[in-house]
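re: ur question from yesterday

yeah so i grabbed the chain u mentioned. its 346 aa long if i counted rite. heres the sequnce exactly as i have it in my notes:
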Amino acid sequence: MDNELTDRAQQLLKALVERYIHEGQPVGSRALARHSGVRLSPASVRNVMADLEEAGFVTAPHTSAGRVPTVRGYRFFVDSLLTVKPLTRQEVRRLESELRLDQEDPQALLSSASNLLSGVTRLAGVVTLPRRERNAWQRIEFVPLSETRVLAVVVFNDQDVENRVLQLERGYDPAQLQKAANYLNAHFAGKDLTEVRGALLEEMREARESMNALMLSAIRMAEQISGKEEDQGGYVMAGETNLMEFDELSDVEKLRRLFKAFNQKRDILHLLDQCIAAEGVQIFIGEEAGYRVFDECSIVTAPYGADDDVIGVLGVIGPTRMAYERVIPVVDMTARLLGHALNSRD
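ran it thru and got these structure tokens back, copy pasting raw so excuse formatting
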């Protein structure tokens, strides 16, 4: 059990994790004996390392004499051995200046936060779009573009309007499109887009026989809009190429799968959305994320809010061998600063 680790085992595990994070090479017993601060012979250190390996906290890669932390070792380190120091006033001022809190455009502010996280941590920075701005439409209008292509003008609030091109199965004249918009505005305006898709499908099941063809088409149009939420972005990311600098992620196939996940966005959005209801910094290490593509990665997140509501999540994605002591306070403070900036805009 984790809580049964002796004090010296914990000290040696802490020293091993810190040294591996710093150097990126398996750590040998002789090096630990010299630099851990624990007064033990190399032979005694080897015995402790053997116990830690048997318990699943460290492993010996290939034929190397040294050891590296496992996911369980990192988790114990983060939960029990890591001391996170608050940022200094000077460091906070630097974050404030680089975040560009005077941005009027909310999208530019989110991009600034993503770039800031990437630049400071040298990892990939990610910020989800605010839920209140991306999820609930206030009004929708349809404009014909060609025989089967329609421009949907979706108004989310006074400041945010999105234009989405829909490919329909058949053509509609302007009067029919206006009727469809009127129907959708009457039944679904103000609802969260994540709820709309299910409501639309349920409405189609319950009322298919009594609804005319135009209303069914209107529902299909709205379903097409709500189903495209992920394609519209969902989050902004910066610094993906920073991950190429880490040996454990430099394998071409691993990078290809990781960048594919970044482009498809679905898995990352699902993972980040789990953090919406959580308080404070959340850390997913390796397979804890639940997606194989992130098995070699750690994801550190924090929710950000405005008007006392959590509206999004930001964080960094990097190798499990990341400098948690440095990354955690940066993510936490950036979330606080972003929330403050969004409140100031209201």
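noticed a couple things. Confidence is low (pLDDT under 50) at residues 228-232. also Strands lie at 58-59, 68-69, 124-128, 139-144, 149-155, 161-167, 235-238, 282-285, 297-306, 309-319.
anyway ttyl
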